[in-house]
Amino acid sequence: MSPPGSCWPTAAADPSPTARTEAGFHALGDLGYEGEAAILTVPIKKTPGVNLTDEQKQINWLQAHARARAEQANALLKTTFKALRRVSLDPSQIGRIVAAALVLLHIEHGRTT
């Protein structure tokens, strides 16, 4: 796996991002994923000498809040299941493993219906 900030995450993304976007799936990215609007929603960058509007600040805050929840969930899974700490699988295949780990986590915490 490449170091954080490299091009690996977007290069390894689903080969048909348009199909995922059309199906209503859209991922959140940070400012490091500039230029990936087809598959990621990134925050609005502040340009030199121009301040962000209140609406743009609100959009950035909402996105940061959503990403923080996802980061929390990711951290919980990785601390609970050590095998998820160093995964080098294709991102399209890891989803099933994470889904199974999430089911086990829900069972462990009594969050089943």
What this model shows, in words?
With 113 residues, this protein is mainly α. The chain contains four helices and two strands, in the order ααββαα. The chain has helices at 8-11, 17-22, 54-80, 91-108; strands at 27-28, 40-41. Strands 1-2 form a two-stranded parallel sheet. The radius of gyration is 17 Å and the shape is elongated. The model is unreliable at 1-16 (pLDDT under 50).
What's the gist of this structure?
This protein is mainly alpha-helical and 113 residues long. Helix content is 49%, strand content 4%.
Write the layout of secondary structure elements.
Elements: H1 8-11, H2 17-22, E1 27-28, E2 40-41, H3 54-80, H4 91-108
Parallel strand pairs: 1-2
Strand arrangement in the largest pleated sheet:
1-2
Mean pLDDT: 76
Order of helices and strands: HHEEHH
Q: Any idea what the radius of gyration is? A: 17 Å
* Tally of DSSP β-strands: 2
Q: Strand share of the residues?
A: under 5%
- Helices, by number, come to 4
Residue stretches low in confidence (pLDDT < 50, at least 5 long) are 1-16
Q: Notable features of this structure?
A:
mainly alpha; 4% strand; single chain; 113 residues; two-stranded parallel ribbon; 2 strands; disordered N terminus
